[in-house]
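User: Some background: our group keeps a shared notebook of sequences we're curious about, and every so often someone picks one and asks for a predicted structure to add to the entry. Today it's my turn. The entry only has the sequence so far, pasted here. Could you supply the structure so I can complete it?
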Amino acid sequence: MTEAVDTPVREPLARVEPRVPRLLQLIREDVACVRLRDPAARSELETLLTYPGVHALIWHRIAHRLWRADWKFAARLLSWLGRFLSNVDIHPAARIGQRFFIDHGAGVVIGETAEIGDDVTLYHGVTLGGTSWSPGKRHPTLEDRVVVGAGAKILGPITIGRGTRVGANSVVIEGTPPEVTVVGIPARVVRPELGHRRVVGRIDLDHHLMPDPVGEAISVVLDRVEFLEARLAHVQKRLREGGAPIRDGSDPASPGPRSTERA
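Assistant: Of course. Here's the predicted structure to add to the notebook entry:
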């Protein structure tokens, strides 16, 4: 006769929160990544002491820990101090991933509900702003390896896809797919999925290779005008050879305004 064996019923696994890296580890990575993205950085000590973007990020890392610990006033006070010293305004509630770099560190604004992935680079004058007075998600999300050019504005609860490059002074109000380049006001995708992009370390340094959609459009128009002028000259030549009067008045015997054809 067999004995019954009681099998314990397993409780469903609770949701495991992602492990937050240690503060010192984050700061070390933030300092080390600068030399991969800025040729002017000569040493980690120089970077730590002289880069305002790094200073702003260190202040934010500490303020964000205070915010998560429900020390809201202390976090806001420390955030204000960081802004006063570095001219970079980052709300302490903003979530920023690893190896984040603000080049030149002047005039950057990052809102409360903004989320930034790993290996992201912002240049001076960038704004990650909100577009609503309502509480909740109001600011953009930047996925990993995004590069945002100087003076660009990314507004609203939109998502900028992984590896996307935002041209300088662009205004982005709609989300983007991964691995594209967007420029303009409002920003539009002008170069999708570049497979030949040169990547050094963890970031694409070819952020200066931006297309010129306005110049390309003008070039198309000029080509069309040249084609139409050639076609008109050919029609006029055939009419002259056939002895038929030309309606634009170039035939001396025909009435009408003087011909505008150039010699």
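Suggested note for the entry: The domain at 23-210 is CATH 2.160.10.10 (UDP N-Acetylglucosamine Acyltransferase; domain 1). The two ends are 116 Å apart (CA to CA).
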